[in-house]
């Protein structure tokens, strides 16, 4: 079977639904013809010069990245601009570009699942659960006979009765309907001025709230009664398995110092390295992780009662205040592990590659870029760092 670009896009969007992306994000197919043939796909965190060249020299027809190339609005993509250069290089080389960003962050599984697996954390659920898509339930009453099947089919076609991988789902109970037609009515059953009792079936079906109008219109069109009776009920909001970050446990507890080493061993090396804030001897078992910049989810990590929180791009003041709040015996504030942004998201590349390989079998070869696109390339440390002393003056501050 020859795979097309649209086949790869469909597989990726099924795993990382665009609807999960934040409204400020830019996800999906950036360039490329959906009808183009695809035999090789490269996966990377960043769309940069190095990964674009790797795509083309490796004869891949698609580059899939986590970070968007065109996140902020642009007025043009001329080849004389940095981003335009990359797009023109891909197009001229016959390759497309696809991005899964915050939709991959919240998907189940997603970026944080891959991070958790890389450092040996067994995931229980999301750190910040996203609400499931809102649902309604429609309840209607249909006279016994052929109309039941007609109404059921119409509601199903309009979007009701979809539960996971099942369609046409409903529940039916028998009962008796009663009505009294008044002058001007045109009853399908009974006569004007005469109280009528009819054997009816009560049908209940769930539906996405966004399909409410379509389902009600389908009911009115298919129901034999001039004025069909029905209820539309809003279902309670429920958490889903999707959402930002993940919470889980280590197989065996270990010290915070050992856990920090575990994180460093599980992720690709960067100049940034892996930094820990907390008591090195503290026992760590329950862990929260968040791929990418995750200091906005720190309160959720505290509320989750975890022993350690692993994320990237932690800022000085929030981290300092967090550690201060966690001092003293019996603290429930987690220790912090700060890793490089790129390193925290790189494990996702293999996950996304598996999605495409699993969906398209042997028709598409998948490869994960091992080029380190973390922007930090060098680091320097004092040969013998010392803490500032009481004799340090403002004129000769210690190195920060």
Give structural notes.
It contains 12 helices and 15 strands. The chain is an alpha/beta fold and 400 residues long. The strands form 3 sheets. Strands 5-10-12-13-14-11 form a 6-stranded mixed sheet. A 5-stranded mixed sheet has the order 1-4-3-2-15, sandwiched between helices. Strand 12, helix 9 and strand 13 form a beta-alpha-beta unit. Helix 6 runs antiparallel to helix 7. The protein is globular. It starts with a helix and ends in a 32-residue tail after the last strand.
Question: Could you say what the CATH topology of the largest domain is called?
Answer: Udp-n-acetylmuramoylalanyl-d-glutamate--2,6- Diaminopimelate Ligase, Chain: A, domain 1
> Could you say how many structural domains there are in total?
3
Structural class: alpha/beta
Using only C-alpha atoms, the radius of gyration works out to 29 Å
* Average of the residue pLDDT scores: 92
What is the makeup of the main sheet?
A: 6 strands, mixed
Write a short abstract of this structure:
With 400 residues, this protein is of the alpha/beta class. Helices cover 28% and strands 28% of the residues. α6 packs antiparallel against α7.
List keywords for this structure.
400 residues; alpha/beta; Udp-n-acetylmuramoylalanyl-d-glutamate--2,6- Diaminopimelate Ligase, Chain: A, domain 1; Alpha-Beta Plaits; 3 domains; six-stranded mixed beta sheet; 12 helices; disordered C terminus
């Amino acid at each position: 079977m020859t795979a097309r670009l649209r086949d790869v896009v469909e597989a990726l969007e099924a795993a990382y639904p665009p609807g999960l992306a934040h409204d400020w994000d830019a996800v999906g197919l950036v360039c490329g013809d959906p009808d183009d043939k695809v035999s090789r796909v490269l996966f990377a965190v960043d769309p940069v010069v190095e990964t674009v060249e790797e795509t083309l020299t490796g004869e891949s027809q698609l580059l899939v990245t986590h970070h968007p190339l065109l996140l902020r609005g642009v007025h043009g993509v001329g080849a004389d601009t940095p981003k335009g250069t990359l797009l023109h290089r891909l197009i001229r080389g016959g390759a497309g570009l696809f991005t899964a960003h915050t939709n991959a962050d919240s998907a189940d599984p997603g970026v944080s699942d891959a991070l958790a697996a890389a450092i040996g954390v067994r995931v229980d659920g999301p750190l910040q659960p996203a609400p499931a898509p809102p649902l309604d339930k429609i309840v209607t009453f249909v006279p016994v006979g052929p109309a039941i099947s007609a109404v059921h089919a119409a509601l199903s076609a309009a979007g009701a009765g979809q539960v996971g991988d099942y369609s046409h789902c409903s529940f039916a109970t028998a009962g008796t309907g009663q009505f009294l037609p008044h002058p001007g009515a045109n009853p399908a059953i009974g006569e004007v001025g005469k109280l009528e009792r009819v054997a009816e079936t009560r049908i209940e079906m769930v539906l996405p709230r966004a399909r409410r109008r379509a389902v009600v219109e389908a009911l009115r069109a298919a129901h034999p009664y001039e004025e069909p009776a029905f209820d539309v009920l809003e279902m309670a909001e429920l958490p889903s398995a999707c959402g930002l970050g993940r919470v889980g446990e280590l197989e065996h507890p270990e010290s915070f110092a050992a856990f920090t080493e575990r994180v460093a061993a599980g992720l690709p090396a960067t100049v940034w390295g892996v930094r820990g804030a907390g008591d090195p001897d503290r026992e760590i078992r329950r862990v929260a992780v968040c791929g990418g910049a995750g200091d906005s989810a720190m309160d959720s990590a505290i509320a989750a009662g975890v022993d350690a929180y692993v994320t990237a791009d932690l800022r000085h003041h929030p981290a300092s205040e967090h550690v201060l709040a966690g001092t003293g015996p019996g603290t429930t504030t987690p220790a912090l592990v700060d890793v490089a942004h790129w390193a925290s998201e790189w494990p996702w590349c293999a996950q996304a590659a598996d999605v495409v390989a699993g969906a398209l079998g042997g028709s598409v070869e998948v490869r994960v870029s091992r080029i380190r696109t973390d922007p930090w390339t060098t680091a320097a440390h004092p040969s013998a760092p010392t803490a500032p002393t009481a004799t340090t003056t403002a004129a000769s501050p210690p190195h920060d």
